[in-house]
Design goal:
Elements (H helix, E strand, L loop, with lengths): L5 E12 L2 E13 L4 E5 L6 H8 L7 E6 L4 H6 L3 E4 L11 H12 L3 H14 L15 H13 L5 E5 L7 H18 L2 E6 L2 H7 L2 E5 L6 E6 L14 H20 L1
Parallel strand pairs: 3-7, 3-8, 5-6, 6-7
Antiparallel strand pairs: 1-2, 1-4, 8-9
Helix pairs in contact: 3-4, 3-5, 4-5, 7-8
């Protein structure tokens, strides 16, 4: 059996604050396999983003084990195993869209020719051809977030970690970007970890949905999606989709009751 790309076992994390300890994660165990699209859903403060940051080596668990590509998260970060997309696009306003996407490549020391090839490739992946010389303020919110995704894809990491990238966008734009993200995933075969508050978004995008409880964040359910990988937007009207959404909702309710 092929080992999991990301493995967590009995993960706990407690933050020490001026107001006392905050228990963010409790006994979290999970396997994410190569090519999975895994969504994390739960109430605000349940540890979804904290767990994503543990995968990225940006937070250190208090106890338990976590590995990424068979390495510690810190080693995986140094090996550039993942790209990270934050809630806000985080584009530098004084750099063009192409300049923003090139930034990690510049830091890594790629040649100008290689940078040009990679920027052109990822801009095509996110359907931003022709916008390389525009500045962020000249693009809509959805286009800025696509540029942010392109920047995370530029150095071709196998893992893409996404922290509520579409949460601030209106529903029409969000639906469009959900469709584009699925097409991007199909073309690149990345392993994706995706944080969301939206049940329809989690069900539509994912091969696996991880439902989390209120703090301290525990996993209340792991749902392996039976939906086909090729998903038109209207699949959300199907009985199968609605049944999965009900199970997610039940898992969220269960987490509150158990708490």
């Amino acid at each position: 059996m092929t080992p999991a790309t990301i493995t967590a076992r009995n993960l706990d994390l407690t933050f020490e604050t001026n107001d006392g300890p905050v228990h963010a994660l409790k006994d979290v165990s999970l396997d994410i396999n190569k090519g999975d699209f895994v969504s994390f859903i739960g109430p605000s403060g349940c540890g979804k983003t904290t767990f994503l940051r543990c995968i990225a080596g940006l937070e250190q668990p208090t106890s338990g084990d976590i590995s990424v590509n068979g390495m510690t998260p810190d080693a995986a970060r140094m090996a550039r195993a993942y790209g990270y997309v934050f809630q806000a696009a985080g584009l530098y306003p004084w750099r063009t869209i192409g300049g923003n996407i090139r930034l990690p490549l510049e830091i890594m020391g790629f040649s100008k020719a290689e940078m040009a090839d990679r920027v052109a490739h990822v801009m095509d992946l996110v359907d931003l051809n022709g916008f390389e010389k525009k500045f962020p303020w000249q693009l809509s919110g959805g286009m800025q977030q696509r540029a942010s995704i392109a920047r995370a894809l530029a150095f071709d990491a196998d893992i893409l970690l996404m922290d509520e990238p579409f949460g601030a966008l209106d529903e029409i734009v969000r639906d469009h970007l959900n469709e584009q993200l699925l097409k991007l995933w199909a073309r690149t075969e990345k392993t994706i970890g995706f944080v969301t508050h939206s049940i329809p978004e989690a069900v539509y995008l994912s091969t696996k949905i991880v439902v989390m409880s209120p703090r301290p964040g525990r996993i209340t359910d792991i749902i392996e999606s039976p939906l086909p990988r090729d998903r038109p937007l209207n699949i959300r009207d199907s009985a199968e989709f609605i049944n999965i959404a009900h199970r997610v909702r039940d898992g969220l309710r269960s987490g509150h009751v158990d708490d």
